[in-house]
Design goal:
Helix content is about 50%, strand content about 5%. The chain is mainly alpha-helical and about 160 residues long. The termini are far apart. The protein binds heme C (HEC).
Length: about 160
């Protein structure tokens, strides 16, 4: 009986190891996942011109942008940048993207710092990152709408850490 029990425990242990390695395999799979289009029809439409700061950061559309951005992040970014924006180390940890601004005591300076990061974020997501012909991050212009990209930014804002 005791022997059976310890065998059962061992088996369970093996199963959970298998599940864990499957999960980390999924999280690390880069490159070959088709980007998902995102339905943003419930958000205010922003038009052709790209904004230079996140229009959904505050205001009436914030909650809906956060809902859409959370799912759009999981579908398009999490495979590299990690679930809940916690990087496994392969790609930058997006919780830190605003960290230079976080400690600023002056509210106006802090907001203009966030605005600069908005521009940096938008440029990075639109163009992706290619160096010496290697695609480190795919571009999302033409795949994600402006509304979708700012929704993802809205989600990242809720994950900020210093
Ligand atoms: C195929 C993997 C991959 C995917 C998918 C991906 N990224 Fe990236 N991303 C990277 C890598 C790698 C870098 C760092 C590139 C470099 O070294 O220049 C990066 C850099 C960034 C940066 C700059 C971070 C910093 O600290 O400077 C931002 C912002 C970013 N990604 C946002 C996103 C968002 C938002 C998405 C989803 C819409 C996304 N990424 C999808 C791999 C990816």
């Amino acid at each position: 009986m005791l022997v059976n029990l310890s065998l059962a425990v061992k088996r369970l242990g093996l199963v959970s190891v298998a599940v864990l390695s499957l999960m980390s395999g999924l999280a690390q799979a880069h490159g070959d996942v088709v980007p998902q289009s995102v339905d943003t029809s419930t958000l205010p439409q922003l038009g052709e011109k790209w904004r230079d700061s996140n229009p959904f950061s505050t205001g009436d559309a914030h909650a809906e942008a956060l809902r859409i951005g959370t799912s759009a992040y999981n579908q398009n970014c999490a495979r590299c940048h990690g679930l809940e924006a916690i990087s496994g180390g392969m790609s930058p940890d997006l919780r830190k993207v605003d960290s230079d601004c976080m400690g600023m005591a002056d509210e106006a300076a802090k907001n203009s710092c966030f605005k600069e990061i908005d521009e940096y974020f938008l440029a990075t997501v639109r163009r992706g990152r290619v160096r010496d012909g290697r695609v480190y991050m795919p571009h999302f212009e033409g795949i994600l709408s402006q509304e979708a990209i700012w929704s993802i930014r809205t989600y990242i804002e809720t994950r900020r850490e210093e």
